[in-house]
Amino acid sequence: MKITAKELAMPGLGYAYALGILALTTSCTATSNPSAQTQQSEKVTQVRDSPKVATTIIVIDGSSTVYPITQAIAKNYQADSKNQVQVAVNISGTTGGFEKFCAGKTDISNASRPILKAEMETCKKNGVAYMEFPIAFDALTVAVNPQNDWAQDITIAELKKIWKPSAQGKITRWNQVRASWPDRPVNLYGAGKNSGTFDYFTEATVGKTRSSRNDYTASEDDDVLVDGISKDPNALGYFGYAYYEKSQNKLKALAIDNGKGAVLPSRQTVEKVQYQPLARPLFIYVNFRDNQNKTLVNKFVEFYIDKAATIATAVGYIPLPNDSKHLNYVHLYEGKVGTVFGGKAEMNLTIGELLRKEGKF
Question: First and final CA of the chain: distance in angstroms?
Fold first, then answer.
């Protein structure tokens, strides 16, 4: 039984079909790999049903940006005693997560950018088919310490001036970025090279993916960056919006000026297509493989799709509309394998454009 994206346009039909298929379909996916838990990353959250010890493990790794959403959903899922499964949610960055995912070591990969061509080839080589689900939007945030009373906004050109590779060892003081700013050192904090945030930020600001100076405090864990900036009056750094929102008392966000005026990150500015080019979609990728645990993994994914918008809002991200939930259900039930992005990220993508892409999957 199939429903096409076109049929979703019929009033009430997409959701009714989705619920009907949910009741009738069997699930699709994933192998557990307990040994993956031994590969410790910077942060690991294990959520399990107590007091019973679950025998099946769903292993999730990847983006620290997506981590708060997945962590919260996993905890909610485990609150139901009927779900006899253990969920391990790890952080190793989007790129690090895809390395494990495409090697068949994880069931789900959190990603703050679409899967890249090289990663697609690795997955193909290793026989790992995958399903792509957009789950929220992020307003990638540039932040400083609250003691910084001189910077209120920053242009994309100034961000390029700071972060381009040739700035290393040369652009080291605030007045070198903008003449009206003080002659004080500028201490930089940013995503590590295994992070999808690093890939996206460098392309959006410098103009080339992974093109960046190296003399900065780097981490795939956004909490590390928040902590560093909150203690350093001369700091400037970038990370996912949820990390800014939960630590607003310790940080100050800079408005981003792309030539059309300075705009602060928020749900409203993302939805109105004003916060560009640092607004971006967030994803989970699900390993589509036929084995004894596929029903358990797909049951978790169904729950994830259902709760994504609510949880994304609660942790500080921008939820996708119900149309996205319906499309994700359809793609899950039909076993839609692959990506709509062709192996590269897209700058200035809007929520509407994302939905149109997914509708053509």
Answer: 17
